[in-house]
Amino acid sequence: MPVFYHLFVRRRDKTTLDLLGEDCLMLGRLIYTLGTIMGASKHAPAAPQMAAHMMEFVWTLRYHTEPYVRRSLLFATAMVIVSIPGHFLMTDMQQEMLECRLWLIDIVERDADAECSQMAALNLSLFENHVKKELTINASLPT
């Protein structure tokens, strides 16, 4: 169950936010904020675990109908890519990142929002450069 599940549950006895519906602007801001926190925690010991949870959160909302929310998800994904060492992305998060790469390609090719497509292309470039740099560093190390 995602960490922020309780924000999405509607209760009849209280007034709540409908983050998946009419309050999606607040959802987008929440995701941008989480992405900013992810970027600021680059060297924190808990950053890899935070990244895994962030990608789980992104994954559950990746096909949201509102472009603003999709843009915020792309921002959060970029923060994961730049904040986590490439070796962690390619070992412990390999499956998630390969699926994320396919999702980014799908956005570039099919998303109706031009800004989403552009951000997805930038994320793909970030990811490929990050991995390429990691492979270059590993290849130059003596065995």
From TrEMBL:
InterPro entries: TEL2_Regulation. It comes from the Eukaryota. PANTHER family: TELOMERE LENGTH REGULATION PROTEIN TEL2 FAMILY MEMBER, TELOMERE LENGTH REGULATION PROTEIN TEL2 HOMOLOG. This is Telomere length regulation protein TEL2 homolog. It comes from Priapulus caudatus (Priapulid worm). The gene is LOC106805877.
